[in-house]
Amino acid sequence: MIELRDVTVRYGDKLVLDRFSLDIPHCGFTALSGPSGCGKTTLLRVLAGLTRPEGGTVSGLDPSRTAFLFQEDRLLPWRTVSQHITDVLPRSRRGEAGRWLAFAELEGEGESYPGTLSGGMARRLALARCAALGGELLLLDEPFAGVDRPRAARILERLRGLGVPAILATHQPQVLAACGQIISLDGPPLKRV
Amino acid sequence: MKRSFRFVLPLAFWLGVWAAASWAVGRELLLPGPLAVGRRLLALAGTADFWLSVGATLGRVCLGLLWGALAGSALAFLTHFSSWADRIISPAIRVVRATPVVSFILLVYLWVARSAIPWVIAGLMVLPVMWGALSAGLDGMDGNLLEFARAYRFSRLKALRLVYLPALRPQFSAGLLTAFGLAWKSGVAAEVLCPPARAIGSRIQQAKLGLETPDLFAWTLVIVALSLALERLLRRGLERRRGRD
Fold first, then answer.
1. Residue A127 — left, alpha, or beta (φ > 0 → left; ψ -120 to 50 → alpha)?
2. In chain B, at which end, N or C, are there fewer CB atoms within 10 A of the end residue's CB?
3. What number is the ipTM of this complex?
4. For chain B, first and last CA: distance in Å?
5. For A66-109, what is each residue's pLDDT tens digit?
């Protein structure tokens, strides 16, 4: 179990997490649901170790063994689609690029640059890169934003097939429906509802 | 056709102005005409010394450009990532940038061999330009990409290769093009003031001392032509590289 206890995060004067506590199972798919700006992204960033809380504790996970999908794609304009995958793979697994492109249904785009991809394709590439990095836990912020529903469903199934637990922040009902647990949130400051 | 006309017309116009001015002055010692200079240029180009002097100057300018660009780039990273280095080194680089090139030439003359002065001076002029260009680029780096590199556990070397260097390429190219002109001019100026055995600047100095004004003009034309041609070559090389990436 991942345990957050009395976690406080503030951006300037804005209190996003105010002594927030939550238990999240470290298995299966858990969805974080709530209105935009309630603090879901901040919660994921705290779990990934990217945002250091000013108070409280997080236990039950090692941030250095998580893979984080940012809300923005954060692709490198000068790297090809294939290179985005091989860049995060260890040398011994470089041959797997094709597998991850198939995972995201980006076959045939290996030599393309991000500037030539549609919004949905760019999102799928970012997701494939995150999944290829792997680890003990995937932290996915709006993983299927801009991805059409049938494709999102297929990729979500492949994601499950990896056998790696995931925590997803999402608004999409079909993604929520596919998760074993849904944590409904509101805020800011973030609270469970 | 249209393109060559655009090039030929202004050239013909200025050659005409030059010829008219020379005719009006009426003394080759003060202002030789384009024909006299052209004749001298052809005569000089037929000698081995001409090509050896051109090659030596080119080598020195390129060496200066290389060390200045490398040192300026390395110092830009150092001053960006270390506040102590920034406090100590940045003011010194600003002083170098503000110091007139002629002061440096005369100072360096006291410290290094005469043949090394031009490339030392060229590098000193290049260094602050590259440092300034890359420092501005580093300050303006996309924080999201740097955070991505951290989150995806890129080593420092990997982040440098995959994120920093490609992101800084526009600043590097612009800096290098500006620096090239400076390296060329300051390198030749150093050759004129501290003439090495073989150099374009040394030949200019000799022409001046011997009051051989057509030679002076001919060597100046060589400098201008080489500078324009090499800058064009450098620009094309940088653009081709950008296109490939």
1. alpha
2. N
3. 0.93
4. 33
5. 999 999 999 999 999 999 999 999 989 888 999 999 999 999 99
